[in-house]
Design brief:
The protein has 15 helices and 39 strands. With 716 residues, it is an alpha+beta fold. Among the domains are: 54-86 and 452-715, Alpha/Beta hydrolase fold, catalytic domain (Rossmann fold, 3-Layer(aba) Sandwich); 97-198; 355-448. Strand 29 (417-423) and strand 30 (430-435) form a beta hairpin. The chain is globular, with a radius of gyration of 26 Å.
Length: 716
């Protein structure tokens, strides 16, 4: 659908609808004119939307939700799209992924009968069958109904090696902050009078059955500027938490700080480590030695990676020169545990693995006899097994399917076995069990065919970014895709925090989008992790514009190759990806006709003041510092909405309960567009958190809303 400018609509009418009094925003002073770190409310009349649950803000949200639902659910395709999505999400024959434990294989399952989910277990023998016999351990729906809460299961942390005693995390409505309660997996019940922690960020580590390490909000002076804990206490059974002894304290300026244990495969504590998150990407590590904390001489972008037999593994994201030897970025280094504990900064270091060209580590697992490391090799998956023999490291690449994304799943600390997940865009995902002793790869499960992929093809191309860098991307072309250049095309990416975006079975996207003739494009942008830490570090802070340039270059390449046109090209991204989409459509509004902006960052001149935004200063910079503000100001999407441009009609999607990426970013963007008489849609999930709806019904609704919007904008 070709967009029409609605700039001529009366700004006064928009002001009345918003319940505010204002002059046209395009004529106002931009917040960029305010002194660094001082919010200028006269230039931002929507700052009140930063109050997540104020009645005024929630009334605004309800009105926007009603308007969006009225428009999109009235489309005759909505109910069909929702039903198709829900059928996939509730499917009984999707893979029930499991984790190894001493008392069985655990799976968390949500379906129509269990919308909030059940934690259940089975045996490996039963899991191998088509219809495993499951035993329910925890029923989250029953717990939520009994307590009248919107509980979302946040996982459990159990005491090794048996794993009987656990702390269960429950989130009210999907927030990152959780309450934690002691649970007994043998009796399948919460422990009466057991450990209980009120809602907070942070977590716990078991020391023994009666002792926890706790990092939480302990009151005034215990949270960082980013609102994460920076103190750790030892809490003994029977104590009030206020009596627990503090054993480590970081600094208020840290992102977060805490203490954890290095355990061997038998669950025995072998070392105690503390960390200070100096920025999102930098940490200082300390070792508990002889009654005091000793700072480890590691690069700020290096970290302990795990413990294999008597070897501590260290991973570094930067070149590390020590004792005349340089370990390249992204390599693995080992050091003998006893030598390290005796003299942590002078123990001999050995190179275990270094990346080849366009290779990077991607996930790892430790079994009884080895270390398995997932690799990306030009965005294709591999797995290498490392083990010690005769005092030296040996490695072997596993014989696995080629040209696929391979994820390392759960591993067994009693045997040399682990789960491997193999996927690509068009083939149903397969789950394998790998036996390191026999080198046997056993096919365990496969997801059902969720969409008709007949005739669809996948191609990999490269676009040339503004500085000449080649940016790879995948395009999934539907069956019968015409070469006329007007195929409805959805482009997505991420490009931040060293997180890679990889090929994976398209599932609902295949059913709701590809089957209706749409093409799907996944861009591998700088700032992400597809090619290792260098790919990330070249596009952060003062160079963050490179990520946005890469995305725009891919969009331009799609048009130049004749795959699509700007009138048929849409973009979608969430969180950092929401910022990506926001920068793209505000910098190049002529290039797109749809933009789904999910749980975004958007006001980058105030992001450090909103929610937990200060934790990401290491990625973007600090707008309170004039030099760094100068990096951010040219691309901050919220301020660009002042400009008199013909923007595409974006669809903002946020969550009231998102305490990570605050809904204020999307709210304020929508409100500003409304005041400027620009067309937009806004929908706020009022119960889900950062990951979306709390149950499959709500997730299906969100998917249907998005796909109706895309079809109306790009295909009609």
């Amino acid at each position: 659908m070709k967009r029409l400018s609605v700039r001529a609509m009366a700004t006064a009418a928009a002001s009345i609808a918003l319940g505010t009094s204002m002059t046209p925003l395009a004529a106002q002073t931009s917040p960029a004119a305010a002194p660094a770190g001082v919010p200028d409310e006269s230039a931002d009349p929507f700052i009140w939307l930063e109050e997540a649950r104020s009645e005024r803000a929630l009334n605004w949200v309800r009105a926007e939700n009603t308007r969006t639902e009225d428009e999109l659910t009235a489309d005759p395709r909505f109910q069909t799209l929702k039903a198709e999505a829900l059928a996939i999400l509730d499917s009984d024959d999707r893979i029930p992924y499991v984790g190894f434990a001493r008392d069985g294989m655990y799976n968390f399952w949500q379906d129509k009968a269990n919308p909030k989910g059940i934690l259940r277990r089975t045996t490996l023998e039963s899991y191998r069958t088509d219809e495993p016999e499951w035993e329910t351990v925890l029923d989250v729906d029953a717990r939520a109904a009994a307590e009248g809460r919107e509980w979302v299961y946040g996982g459990m942390t159990c005491l090794p090696p048996e794993g009987r005693h656990c702390m269960v995390a429950l989130s009210d409505g999907g927030k990152d902050a959780t309450v934690m309660r002691e649970f007994d997996r043998v009796t399948k019940s919460f422990v009466e009078g057991g450990f209980t922690l009120p809602e907070s960020q942070g977590g716990i580590t078991w020391i023994d059955q009666d002792t926890l390490l706790v990092g939480r909000d302990f009151g005034e002076g215990t949270l960082t500027e980013s609102l994460y804990p920076y103190t750790t206490r030892i809490w003994k059974r029977g104590q009030d938490i206020s009596e627990a002894q503090e054993i480590f304290r970081g600094e208020p300026s840290d992102v977060s700080a805490g203490v954890y244990l290095l355990r061997d495969k038998d669950g025995v504590e072998r070392a105690r480590l503390a960390y200070r998150g100096l920025s999102f990407h930098e940490r200082e590590y300390q070792l508990w030695k002889d009654g005091e904390w000793v700072v480890l001489d590691l690069p700020k972008k290096a970290a302990p990676y795990g413990l294999v037999d008597d070897q501590v593994l260290i991973s570094t994201d930067v070149d590390w020169t020590v004792d005349g030897q340089t370990f390249p970025a992204d390599s693995l280094i080992s050091v003998n545990l006893d030598e390290w504990k005796a003299d942590p900064n002078n123990a001999a270091r050995t190179l275990v693995w270094a990346p080849g060209d366009r290779q990077t580590k991607q996930g790892a697992a430790i079994t009884s006899d080895g270390l398995y490391v997932g690799l990306l090799d030009n965005v294709r998956g591999k797995v290498v097994r490392f083990n010690r023999a005769n005092g030296a490291w040996q490695q072997q690449e596993l014989d696995l399917p080629e040209n696929a994304t391979i994820g390392i799943g759960s591993s067994d600390d009693l045997t040399d076995t682990l789960m491997l997940n193999v996927t690509d865009f068009l083939s149903p995902t397969r789950l394998f069990l790998y036996d390191g002793e026999t080198q046997n790869l056993e096919a365990l499960k496969s997801s059902p065919v969720l969409f008709d992929a007949a005739g669809a093809t996948v191609e990999q191309h490269e676009a040339i970014s503004a500085d000449g860098t080649a940016i790879p991307y995948f395009i999934v072309k539907p069956a019968g895709m015409a070469e006329s250049g007007n195929t409805p095309t959805l482009l997505t990416g991420y490009g931040g925090f060293q997180v890679p975006r990889l090929p994976g079975y398209l599932g609902t996207t295949g059913k709701l989008w590809l089957e209706r003739g749409g093409a799907y494009v996944l861009a591998n942008l700088r700032g992400g992790g597809e090619f290792g830490p260098g790919w990330h570090q070249t596009a952060i802070r003062e160079n963050k514009q490179r990520t946005w340039d890469d995305f725009i270059a891919v969009a331009e390449d799609l048009v130049e190759r004749g795959f699509t046109t700007p009138d048929n090209l849409g973009i979608q991204g969430g969180s950092q990806g929401g910022l990506l989409v926001g920068t793209a459509f505000t910098q190049r509004p002529d290039l797109f006709d749809a933009a789904i902006v999910q749980i975004p960052l958007f006001d980058m001149l105030r992001y450090h003041e909103i929610g937990r935004g200060a934790s990401w200063i290491g990625e973007y910079g600090d707008p309170r510092i004039a030099e760094q503000r100068a990096w951010i100001e040219p691309y901050s999407p919220y301020q660009k909405l002042n400009e008199d441009k013909d923007f595409p009609k974006p669809f903002y999607i946020t969550s009231t309960a998102d305490d990570r990426t605050h809904p204020a970013h999307g709210r304020k963007a929508a409100a500003r567009m409304k005041a400027n008489a620009d067309d937009y849609l806004y929908y706020e999930d009022m119960v889900g958190g950062h990951s979306g709806g709390v149950d499959n019904e709500q997730r299906a609704k969100l998917l249907a809303l998005q796909n109706v919007y895309l079809l109306r904008q790009l295909a009609d």
